Amino acid sequence: MKHIQKRFILFALFAVVPFLMNAQTTAGNETDTIIITDDPLVQVPYRKVAQSDILGGVSVVDLEELTKKNYNTYSLDNMQGYIGGFTGNALWGMGDYLVLVDGIPRAANNVLPTEIEQITFLKSAAAVVLYGSRAAKGAILITTKRGKETPLEVNVRANTGFHVSKSNPSYLGSAQYMTLYNEARANDGQSPLFSDDEIYHHASGSNPYRYPNVDFYSSDYLKSYYNRTDVSTEILGGNERARFYTNIGYYRQGDVLDFGEATDNFTDRLNIRGNIDLNLNDFISAYINTNATFYNARSANSSQEGGNYWTAASTLRPNRIAPLIPLDFIDPNDQQSWNLVNGSENIIGGQYFLGGTKLDRTNIFADYYAGGYSKWTSRQFQFDTGLDFDLKGITEGLKFHTQFAVDYATSYSTSYNNTYAVYIPSWYDYNGTDVIAGIEKEGNDEKSGQQNVGGSTSNQTIAFSGYFTYDKTINADHNLNAMLIASGYQITNSGQYHRTSSANAGLQLGYNYKKKYYADLSASVIHSAKLPEGNRQALSPTVSLGWKISEEDFMANSSVFDELSLNVSGSILNTDIDIEDFYMYEATYTQASGAWWGWYDGASERSTNSKRGGNDELDFVKRKEISATLMASLWEKLLTVNTSFFINSTEGLLITPSTIFPNYFFTWWPEASFIPNVNFNNDKRVGFDFNVNVNKQVGEVDLTLGVSGIYYTTEATQRDENYEYDYQYREGLALDGIWGLESAGLFQSAEEVASSPEQKFGGTVKPGDIKYVDQNGDNMIDDKDEVYLGRAGWSGAPLTLGVNFTAKYKGFTFFALGTGNYGAYAMKNDAYHWVYGDRKYSEVVLDRWTEETKATATYPRLTTENGSNNFRNSDFWMYKTDRFNLAKVQITYDLPQSLIQNSVFESISTYVSGANLLTISKEKDILELEFDSAPQTRFFNIGLKATF
Known about the structure:
Blueprint: H1 2-24, H2 26-29, E1 41-44, E2 47-50, E3 58-61, H3 63-66, E4 98-101, E5 104-105, E6 116-122, H4 125-128, E7 139-144, E8 153-165, H5 174-187, H6 196-204, E9 225-238, E10 242-253, E11 266-279, E12 284-300, H7 309-313, E13 324-326, H8 335-342, E14 352-354, H9 364-370, E15 372-390, E16 398-417, E17 422-430, E18 433-442, E19 452-474, E20 478-493, E21 500-513, E22 517-527, E23 537-548, E24 561-575, E25 588-592, E26 607-612, E27 621-634, E28 639-655, E29 666-667, E30 672-673, E31 678-698, E32 701-718, E33 737-740, E34 743-746, H10 750-755, E35 758-759, E36 770-772, E37 780-781, E38 787-791, E39 799-809, E40 812-822, E41 825-827, E42 878-880, E43 883-894, H11 897-900, E44 907-920, H12 924-927, E45 937-947
Parallel strand pairs: 4-7, 35-37
Antiparallel strand pairs: 1-2, 3-6, 4-5, 6-7, 8-9, 8-45, 9-10, 10-11, 11-12, 12-15, 13-14, 15-16, 16-19, 17-18, 19-20, 20-21, 21-22, 22-23, 23-24, 24-27, 25-26, 27-28, 28-31, 29-30, 31-32, 32-39, 33-38, 34-36, 39-40, 40-43, 41-42, 43-44, 44-45
């Protein structure tokens, strides 16, 4: 508690300091100027450089400017719409990128766009080498806002909007389900389970309490929309001696659920971010950054094992229970039943008691009405500080920088866990009216009033870096820069024995001649405790060359090119990211007390069993890469182009091989292995990315069109495999390949089944089942007939596109953003589409095969068995995930100064926006469907920003 109090005192000081500083620095502000340049500074590893001096594989978004026309709620929201090479979840298809917030490894979702100045995407190996092993698959640098040399400025932004559900799953009602379940039983040679009379009563809807027909997605349980509201305030200012920035923000978001305790579900976040930059004297400057974030999420309790409302919605059949039963149905003379329900603590709305069955002593509805609630709480405190020394007294251009950070996060859950009783009614007919003539009670109502605390976690990050920089210009032509870096961090997570660690030393040497010819040599020496002694250090070198062609004499009079440059780089990065655990180089042995053999007959002995061999030569995984970047500005910046081409090979991925060691290194019984982990598998990615922007003024309208994207291929260039048939080999095919059987439609008759290859997946194959192609001609269908079917796009679709458009006219700004993904496939292999056994029936089964529909059926016959023949990966279930999304539209109006010049406001902007508005796809219904989680939503927002 003492440490927490210290942190709050620190944050309180940040709230006071701006006003104290403003009172002391008025004289300095009198000469403040704001310089806007066409060559902005971009944050790259450990420094900021002019955008024109970047040597490729780097893209940047000025989020502070972007937020003026595109308000959003997540720091990396739809960044593929602006950045070529970013798929939305990976850089250049690599996956597992590193996020650094102000130079410290932190979560991207713990910093909101209103707190961010700039986001830099480091895609190439040369761009990330100085960050060491953990950044080997790319890095995203989030730079938060800082104070400026301006008088005191206050910005207030307020938003409120509504999430509107796009679509809900379509499950069959009780009568349809019961009818088709009977059909499934008939298909399996079984008698009907439900009588025609039962089905009739469920279909009539005359008494849904006796004959339930539960629709989880009705307005009884869900709202069609819910609110999100946020407010943030920025306070900034300063002078040449000191600058400050503070951001205080709060948001609260509701939930689509609308009954019981779930009516009060919410998520909220309070953040306080602040920083101070100080010039202590002519050669020492310092800064302090702090952030505190408080998250809360309240939700109704669920007693359902491993599930919540949405998992129950996808599994609980509509005829199974009546969640609530009106008291009015109880026979007025049935005193025993009235005594039971009158003793209940959970009479809902004074009208209903909780229904159930002997098999369903709890259910999700009763949980949310009577089971209590829980609240997840998270507290995150972040602190970093740094000193910068200008060592010009030693030599001009030499500086030393150091940074130290400590982040601490805790989370826990508190809950009130109630137990409750459900009541099983006995129904009878009285003069044509349904009456409850008896009630059986299951369970007891108990509310202890005790708050339970659990799920406690804690995480800590400690980071340090110290580095020298050197910048020198000789004779106005020769520009030198260099860095010598030592850095590292450790992340400790509760419940994990080993910390996540990074330690490296880096060197960067750069030179350019007249800002025309560039050369850069960068390298890092990394360390990893995941590898055996002797292999724990490695050198990662990169070389980059650049040529600013537009500076050549032969381009001096070009009427086309304003700027034209070409950069190439070659790199070898060593990394331990793909080494999943520690001690993977060690041999593993276990001891069993009940051995299968003994030293003499009649007695068992303890045995020591080898599970894995050791490998003292286990080494780092390597990313070997060649990339080239072309940047151009044409026709006085009417058109700008930035495109990169890359070839990278990830080599030495760890496997436990099965074919490169003799077969006697492994036995199935007793299970034993002397095979070690080895560096063997190799992956290859080849692709290009692009950003193209067109800027044009037409009359009084300023137009900007931006197109970005990435296209890449992947290949497994080396694999440990030994298949019987060539078409089964993974080597040479995509890394994210989908494998399965090739289908040939549905069997139409018993004769066709008998004349076709035998399908060996269990159960009896009948008409209406899926027919498969015999790939190897052995007259049977089994796993040996699986083939490559297409790419899944695990790290992004083969082609990712983004389009953004801006039109400005006087005070109005229109902005639109679209994103697209093309070339990937997915499987309909979820519980919504794979319906068998006693699973809940969705609308997909309406297209099932029957004798009457066999000419048009697109779904296999229904079955109550496990469906092992039909419900397995095959192209029958594949679909294309190609889509184009209208991700955002916003209209902003900036009030003219003439209206506010005599007020307290410096500027006022209002805006309306819509997000996730439209999906254009052949498979739109599937892509917008969520069947075991909350529905996807469109978000409509209205906002106001005012500057004082």
